[in-house]
Predict the 3D structure of the following.
Amino acid sequence: MKRARTAAEMIGAMSPALQPGEFVFVTLGGGAAPEGAVATYREAEGLSAILPVEVARRGGLPIDQPMRCITLMVLSALDGVGLTAAVAGALAAAGIPCNMVAAYHHDHAYVPADAAEKALGVLRALQASRP
């Protein structure tokens, strides 16, 4: 499948999909992330990790901000410009916080669990607004 490159192509083909389960962002002092981590990033302050709630619970980690993941199913170009800004901007305009995570194949918007369905609607409307 060809990667979308322009903002209009990426937004028009993003096909947002709400993933099952809830996740939390945590920071760990050092070492490795627990088995089952969805993503990690080493920062000066420690290892940041995105964990399924059940993994965090087993590890005794805080679960104070459960998130849901909306995956943008478009194969966006790593050098594409505008998708993250459009998604974050549309969600911000609707009053929905989001944490964007870009991976090799797809971009993922993590939103508060209680706003996930509303966020999905906002992103579907954004996609429909592009030719």
About this structure: The first strand starts at residue 16 and ends at 18. The CA atoms of residues 25 and 50 lie 5 Å apart. Residues 23-64 form one domain. The chain is about 25% helix and 30% strand.
